[in-house]
Specification:
By secondary structure, this protein is α+β, with helices and mostly antiparallel strands. Helices cover about 40% and strands about 20% of the residues. The protein has 14 helices and 12 strands. Helix 4 (about 75-90) packs antiparallel against helix 5 (about 115-130). The longest helix has 21 residues, at about 260-280. It is globular. The structure holds a DNA duplex (18 and 18 nucleotides).
DNA sequence: TCTGGGGTCCTAGGACCC
DNA sequence: TCTGGGGTCCTAGGACCC
């Protein structure tokens, strides 16, 4: 049996822990750069603010309705998440942290433990110890636990935030209630196609022939169908080392010059290298992509990515920057307006396992140099030491106009009870 | 003016091998 | 007219997740 635990409106709930005056009021949290809405309180949802809403389009509504707006404070959310997860892991030895606000728990060998009561206790303890409200769905498969969780969230009064699909009657009733577009693993593209075929609910989906599902939705789609029928096809996943690390950004304006783009790509490569060194890894392949502004229908659109294999595994900022710019040169097209770009590194290996090449071209002096740069930057602030290929004038700063304090991760921001 | 960032998995098709 | 069979590996792109 599986339980899916989901923190309600997680980012908003984190803000409310330290601002209890906001409970019952409409609250939203914005993405990086204060771009769009990524979390909403129930009151904000009731005002009709959709997920992903561009903040600038809703500024008026925010003011008129007294919506409390926050910039994303990821250090705070990460720390609160960690606290919630550590409580959850007391309730089952088998836990998969699925995202910052979600975890699957597996209850095997729990025949003599009343699972429902167990989950109720867990819910109360998380709320008491962290202030975060959670919803729990329980079922025989992960996909059904997701469905049960939705019911728990949708009907808080009837369910108390914990719902168990423990009979086939309940399973069928739940699947007939759940719209196809809300099924875990069925996104916009597939639901559009399924709706066009008259498949409106999760239940309808389970009635499709296996062959059709496999053909059009791949093996994952077929496994999903089985899961919804109650046949376990997904197990808990054990945390594996990252397969890729990305640094990508949307620009504040449109770039046309190769030079501008080259500088951004160099900086993203440096940031990827820093992330690699932080987790003691190297990478042996790298992808660079560039995109035009998809919202500007009046301009020609272009998007291209390229992956290159590196001759050796590295985490040197200098090497990665060199290769990233080579890659950029291969995909850059002049005369276009670029809005977004990124660098993604993969083929990640532990730094201490190093495959030398016959004709060594890597510079062995890089490693101590990088360590020195990391130390200086850690002490005197991000990006104090940069490569000359990066913009030395630029003070790279995200727009974060309404950032809350880092209550739990920075001693200077610790909450003041009484002055 | 202003529309996020970071991940995973799967497939088709090409290049290549014996 | 006829022109094998069975593989692997790689990459770009698409779909999905939070």
């Amino acid at each position: 049996m599986f339980a899916l635990v989901d923190c309600n409106n997680f980012y908003v709930s984190c803000e409310r822990v330290f601002r209890p005056d906001l409970i019952g009021k409409p609250v939203v949290v914005l993405s990086n750069n204060d771009g769009c809405v990524i979390a909403r309180s129930n009151e904000a949802k009731a005002l009709g603010i959709p997920m992903g809403a561009p903040a600038f389009k809703y500024e008026k509504l925010f003011n008129e309705q007294g919506v409390e707006v926050f910039s994303a404070n990821f250090p705070l959310y990460g720390d609160m998440s960690h606290r919630v997860m550590s409580i959850l892991s007391e309730y089952s030895p088998d836990i998969e942290i699925y995202s910052i606000d979600e975890a699957f728990l597996k209850f095997s060998g729990f025949q003599h433990i009343p699972v429902y009561a167990h989950c109720k206790t867990m819910q109360e303890q998380v709320n008491k110890w962290t202030g975060i409200p959670i919803s729990i769905g329980i079922a025989d498969t992960k996909a059904l636990a997701k469905v049960a969780n939705r019911i728990a969230k949708k009907f808080p009064h009837e369910t108390g935030g914990v719902y168990w699909i423990d009979t086939d009657t309940k399973r069928i009733k739940a699947l007939k209630w759940l719209g196809i577009e809300d099924v875990w693993g069925i996104g916009r593209q597939h639901s559009r196609r399924l709706l066009a075929m008259g498949i409106k609910t999760a239940y309808d989906f389970t009635q499709l022939p296996d062959v059709w599902v496999k053909k059009h939705m791949s093996i994952m789609g077929l496994r999903l169908k089985h899961e919804l029928l109650g046949i376990p096809s997904f197990d808990l996943e054990t945390p594996a080392p990252r397969q890729s690390i990305a640094t990508t950004r949307t620009f504040e304006s449109l770039y046309t010059d190769f030079e501008q783009l080259r500088e951004r790509i160099a900086t993203f490569a440096v940031m990827c290298a820093e992330k690699l060194r932080k987790q003691n890894s190297c990478c042996a392949a790298l992808t660079v992509f560039i995109l035009t502004d998809r919202f500007r229908e009046d301009l020609p659109q272009y998007g291209k990515s390229i992956t290159i294999q590196l001759p050796f595994a590295t985490n040197s900022s200098i090497e990665l920057t060199k290769f990233a710019i080579q890659a950029l040169q291969q995909i850059f097209k002049a005369g276009l307006h670029y809005k977004k770009a990124g660098v993604i590194v993969h083929d990640i290996t532990p730094a201490h396992i190093y495959q030398a090449t016959l004709f060594e071209t890597r510079n062995s002096k890089h490693l101590p140099l990088m360590l020195a740069i990391d130390k200086i930057n850690a002490r005197f602030g991000q990006q104090k030491i940069r490569l000359a290929s990066q913009d030395l004038q630029r003070v790279w700063k995200m727009k974060q106009a309404r950032l809350s304090p880092r209550y739990t991760t920075d001693i200077n921001d610790i909450i003041i009870i009484k002055v």
